Amino acid sequence: MFKTLNLIGGSWRHATDGASTVVTDPATDAVLAEVPRCTAFDVQDAIGAAAGALPAWRALSALDRAKVLRRLAALVDDQRDRLAALITSENGKPLAEARAEVEYGHGFLAWAAEEGLRVYGESVPSWNTDKRISVLRQPVGVTAAITPWNFPLAMLTRKLGPALATGCTMIVKPATQTPLTALALGELAVEAGVPAGVLNVVTGSGPVVAGPIFADPRVRKVSFTGSTEVGQELIRLSAGNVTRLSLELGGHAPLLVLDDADLDVAVAGTLRAKFRNTGQSCIAANRIYVVASRYEEFCAAYVEAVRTQRVGRGDQDVEIGPLIDDEAVKKVQEHVDDAVAKGATLACGGGTVDLGPGHSGRFFAPTVLTGVRPDMLISSEETFGPVAGISPVDDVDAAVELANDSPYGLAAYVFGRDIGQVTRVVERLEYGVVGVNDGTPSTAQAPFGGMKTSGYGREGGRYVMGEYLEIKYVSVAL
Question: Would you please indicate which residues are annotated as catalytic (active-site) residues?
Answer without folding.
Answer: 248, 282
